[in-house]
Write a structure and sequence with these properties.
The protein has 404 residues and is α/β, with parallel strands linked by helices. The chain is built from twelve helices and 16 strands. The structure holds zinc ion.
């Protein structure tokens, strides 16, 4: 099938469920999209698309490649009940009990994500004095190994806090010089009990390394809202508009309307983006209100099959369905909003370039049989084919790329 610089014609597919087309791909890019049956390229390989729906590869914008236990024997959840209990439980298990290296476990999840149609990934990795930079090294090794099948951005994530664990700040600084792309943060009030201290440090690191910031924020209600206001103060002071992502932000689902509206307007002005995975029995950001206010958001998996959470399988199509269910999205127009948040909007927020189903863009796409985009979101039917840079990397839900 598709290989090297030979052109490939993907024949008879329906872009986002619209009229059937042929997609011509070469040199890793989409050359043209023409009515079905009309593409004529001398010497091109032809792949039959079966009149399936074709979409751009998913943006898996938030996972933890170092935490993953995918591919290992199933391990019941043993942590909790408090956040610090989960944190300590994870470290004990990963340092003392799991002997499969990060590089191998990360590879297991990468292949799984690719088989479900993700073509780009943003992954966090834990950094603290007990791990040192070992998690970064493992994730970097997996990134290099699978460079032909997925593009990966890496966030250094202080899972155990920063201010409460001396040495973490210095390790984050080192990580950002050693291959990490983005500064991570975590619950500066709840974990560190020093919100100004943690946030000042994150913005200092981001300025020094010219990176964005990607915060985990689980802080509830008015505490979380206050932390977002503190983040906004610093974005305005440092000119970091469009460079800060806040993951979860459960608090946005708990505020009274007046405070929410005021906060969303200020977030929109500063182009602060929200990541949601459609959490379980927890408040979550009201996505349509974010959209109306102009706050960008995207959908991703976060924690799956690790010491925190047994659920999830890296399937972004299913994830779009879960988030839609939680948001009471039913109409095609609503499902489209969720689908955008797992594709185009996510690519734009995270800075993945040349993304989308259009000539000149990366030939990263998937095909799936179905009546419409909404129908395949509802069924999460298996992906028939997944292409990365014009090469077939998964077929019928099975990864067939390098290092299978
Ligand atoms: Zn996370």
């Amino acid at each position: 099938m598709a290989n090297g610089n030979t052109a490939t014609v993907l024949r008879n597919v329906r872009p986002m469920g619209e009229a059937a087309a042929d997609i011509v791909m070469s040199d890793g890019k989409i050359d043209s999209i023409v009515p079905a049956g009309s593409a004529q390229v001398a010497g091109a390989a032809v792949v039959e698309g079966n009149n399936d729906i074709v979409m751009p590869g998913f943006v898996e914008g938030h996972i933890h490649l170092d935490k993953i236990l995918w591919g290992l024997p199933f391990r019941p959840i043993s942590g909790g009940p408090e956040l610090l209990d989960y944190i300590n439980n994870e470290k004990r298990i990963r340092i003392k009990e799991v002997d499969v290296p990060v590089e191998v476990r990360a590879g297991n999840l990468i292949r799984q994500c690719v088989s479900k149609g993700s073509s780009v990934i943003r992954s966090h990795f834990d950094v603290d004095p007990d791990y040192g930079l070992s998690n970064l090294e493992g994730v970097l090794a997996a990134k290099a190994k699978y460079a032909d099948v997925v593009d990966i951005q890496i966030v250094c994530f202080p899972q155990s806090g920063i201010m409460r664990l001396p040495g973490t700040a210095e390790l984050m600084d080192e990580a950002l010089s050693a291959g990490a792309d983005v500064v991570g943060g975590l619950d500066p009030a709840m974990i560190d009990k020093d919100p100004a201290g943690q946030l000042n440090l994150l913005f200092k690191l981001a300025e020094k390394h010219s990176t964005g910031i990607d915060m985990h924020l689980h802080e509830a209600s008015t505490l979380g809202a206050h932390t977002i206001e503190m983040i906004l103060d610093r974005i305005e002071a440092h000119g970091m508009q469009g460079k800060v992502v806040i993951a979860h932000a459960y608090c946005l689902g708990e505020l009274d309307h007046v405070r929410l509206k005021k906060l969303l307007d200020r977030m929109a002005r500063n182009k602060v983006a929200i990541m949601t995975n459609g959490p379980g029995a927890r408040p979550m950001p009201p996505l349509m209100e974010l959209k109306e206010a102009g706050v960008p958001f995207y959908i991703a998996s976060d924690s799956i099959r690790d010491t925190w959470n047994p659920f999830g399988d890296g399937d972004m199509l299913a994830r779009v369905g879960m988030v839609s269910l939680r948001q009471h999205f039913r109409r095609d127009s609503e499902i489209k909003v969720a689908m955008d948040a797992a594709t185009h909007q996510a690519a734009e927020i995270l800075g993945f370039e040349d993304y989308g189903l259009a000539p000149g863009r990366n030939a990263d796409l998937l095909t799936v049989p179905g009546d419409s985009v909404t129908e395949v979101v509802v069924t999460a039917r298996e992906r028939r084919m997944v292409f990365k840079s014009g090469k077939l990397v998964a077929e019928n839900g099975r990864y067939i790329g390098p290092n299978a």
